[in-house]
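The passage that follows is intended for readers who have already worked through the single-chain material. We present the inputs for a multi-component assembly, then the predicted structure in tokenized form, and finally a short commentary. You are encouraged to pause after the input and sketch how you expect the pieces to fit together before reading on.
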Amino acid sequence: MVSATQSAVSSAKVMQPSSLSADSVLNFARGDPTMYRAYWEKLGDRCTVVISGKDLMSYFSDAGNLCWFLMPELDRAIRRLHRAVGNAEVGEDRFIVVGTGSTQLFQAALYALTHTDKPDDEILPTSVVAAAPFYSSYPEETDFQRSKLYKWAGDAYSYEGEGAYIEVVTSPNNPDGAIREAVVNREGGKLIHDLAYYWPQYTPITRKADHDIMLFTFSKATGHAGTRIGWAIVKDKEIAMKMVKFMELSSIGVSKESQFRAAKILEVISEDCLNPEPNKVVNFFEYGQVVMSERWEKLREAVKASGAFSLPKYTQNFCIFTGKDTDSNPAFAWLKSKEGLNCDDLLREHKIVTRGGKNFGVCPSLTRISMLSPDEEFNLFVERLAAIKGSNSNGSTNY
Amino acid sequence: MVSATQSAVSSAKVMQPSSLSADSVLNFARGDPTMYRAYWEKLGDRCTVVISGKDLMSYFSDAGNLCWFLMPELDRAIRRLHRAVGNAEVGEDRFIVVGTGSTQLFQAALYALTHTDKPDDEILPTSVVAAAPFYSSYPEETDFQRSKLYKWAGDAYSYEGEGAYIEVVTSPNNPDGAIREAVVNREGGKLIHDLAYYWPQYTPITRKADHDIMLFTFSKATGHAGTRIGWAIVKDKEIAMKMVKFMELSSIGVSKESQFRAAKILEVISEDCLNPEPNKVVNFFEYGQVVMSERWEKLREAVKASGAFSLPKYTQNFCIFTGKDTDSNPAFAWLKSKEGLNCDDLLREHKIVTRGGKNFGVCPSLTRISMLSPDEEFNLFVERLAAIKGSNSNGSTNY
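Having made your guess, compare it with the prediction:
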């Protein structure tokens, strides 16, 4: 399997966003959410943080808290935002664990769910599964340390192993935007819910998610990927403690500068959601929804003009955040070659780099395309896509 | 074994630095370097960073660099500082890999040195050793993931295993401040040099260190532990690439806010070292040296007054940074009970929490005491220490 991260990184090296031309290679393999930059620019100084040399020096943020490296202002900001959006249960009995992105927290959750004091030769590794198509980095993130505690066991739909397993439920799903539930549902199973994209700009918020371990990430929520802040909302105290232990051993906590800034930005978003004023800009999620919706419209037009591809169809749902029926506008487009061609290869011929279906555990006629690139790149992409003609171009654009 | 991190964390919870009294429990188990705060306060706005909502959004810092998430300004600042201090070789052919503290980089180095494409059942785990007394977190950091690639194998002095091994060389050593070299020296051995304390405030800089993998950390260099920035200087390109790969899989890079701030602070230090001006405050290392030297003097006086303890003796050496013969003033005191009592227990009876010898692979008559606590705590500590009387109090204070 091609390493998804590696292919994204190496392809990033060939792209020069500042000098786009008809010949430029466009990288849509990675989900770098830089398109939200325009919004944060509009907000001017409202989200600015100032940190002097003497600030944020100690390892400790809140020694009395179970998660001793979590800054109290970030804890508050996370809970307030979830309450404002209505997308996750964050009652006083839930524990927040902060991580260096949700990537680190995914590994902390695997550790917490499989930790044992047994000697090595008595350990049976727990199987880790996810329904295909699954996020392309799960297999490698699970296996790269060669842990005796857990191992990647592939597609949850075809999982037939005995004993302990962990199912990762990604909803909305990366790559295809589908709303997901657990599929194995056997005794002894444990669940990690990756809710990175369960925000109003991507999908209607239909209910307050309330699962054992829920992962969120600042990068997909607001676009600040470089900040590397993720958080887990955890029901069970023992599991939360083990996740904190993982974070201690893995990196002795999480950057305070990043926590401080994330807290500030999340507070501004919550404030604008809860206390809108006529002369303020729209809140971040409304903005995101408009931008994503425009992009999806352009993409669907290009797919129609081409005739060579199809896209998933999403049904409208009532969104409790916006208070109206709302479309899904996923962060990725899951594009299919109608003729069953290798879709990633086909697009690379047109200098569009995507992440092919095989990375996600499915066939190569599908490929994943980031919908979060800068405007200029996105517009060039849809232009090129529309110009790709299939040998049979009169089919439906949905499947 | 008591978890060193856990004991530091749980003991931190009982300390209330703002309300110290004769009854207060003093936590000297952890190495939280908050005592440098006074210096950074003196510098006023010179190290202040301002980050607006639109800044530092992308995952990528320098897509053309091997370490694609390393900010170019931090790369430059690290190299400039090492050149100013003379403590490590950072020629153009050396690779810098940034991490979430040197803790994460230690694990990245283990991964890079043992990575293989072999199937699980063909892997022989590489032994990881360090000469006792060794840093108390190495065993747990090595083993917590239960990797098939490597395993903790204890004291390097007594290591008799066959085949591949990794020796961690910590110099100056944590906990005892000793200058160290590799002790196993067998074919097939690989080395990780942990040089966290190889800075002029702790030890004379006697030569430019030049090893395969050298780890440094911002927290011990400048006192900014909460920033979670460490860096590795790596000779071999393949090893550097694997360490970068580890960082990608572990946390998709490192906080940009932290990198940005670390770059700023390291630049200010370098500038003050290279271009001193009469009306400027002394450079950070000179300040650190004075403070550490005063503390060691106070500690030695207290140990003498008590009579129940002894401390290691360090020889003066010519420091190429200061240009004169200089004492060692380690970040930790490695205190011994002259009567062979459990030193950690003895101090806990006097409400001084330390980290006992067993955590470092040696006997409990020794214990480690942080020399980096706030002034008020340090002063109360030496006062209490001086008052502890042994049954025989006329011996030497050095061993």
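Commentary: Chain B has eleven helices and 16 strands. Confidence is low (pLDDT under 50) at residues 1-17, 393-399 of chain B. How closely did your sketch match?
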